[in-house]
Amino acid sequence: MTMTEYTLDDVGGRLPVRSLAHFAHYLPPESATMRELRPEDEARVAWMEGAATAQLLAVLIDEVRGMEWMYGKAHSKGSLRRPKPFETPWRNGEEAGVRRIGSAPIRIADFDEWFDRKE
User: Which of 9, 11, 54, 76 lies 20 to 30 A from 69 at CA?
Assistant: First the structure.
């Protein structure tokens, strides 16, 4: 509505109610009004806005690197290193090269004892 010459003050005068209803009916899904009215469409809206584009591109890069590695491994006699995943801010610590401490969960009693310990 900000792109038109009308405001909500014009409803009933210069702007007929029917025109406002028509405008509201055809609002784009990514508009704030439609996000409020249809929260179930949030995933679809994310695709439309391109929010998933960076993630898809990172996955595509990883897949191409993986295919190149498999092809190279199948057609060479030497050993090839597996490609590292493309670094992105949303990968979990293991994929992003962050060192992990511990390999299994600990018992609740052990955790409580460790957590309540005063140093």
Answer: 54
Distance CA 62, CA 70 (A): 12
Q: Round to whole Å and give the CA distance between 89 and 78.
A: 33
- If one counts the domains in the chain, the total is 2
Answer whether residue 29 is part of any domain.
Answer: yes
Query: How far, in Å, are 2, 49, 82 from residue 72 at the CA level?
Result: 56, 37, 10
Residue recorded with tokens 């409803």: 11
Taking only the tens place, the pLDDT of each residue in 27-86 is 888 888 888 888 888 877 877 777 678 888 999 999 999 999 999 999 998 889 999 988
Identify the CA nearest to 56 among candidates 92, 90, 22: 90
Q: Which amino acid would we find at residue 46? A: A
Range of the domain at 109: 53-116
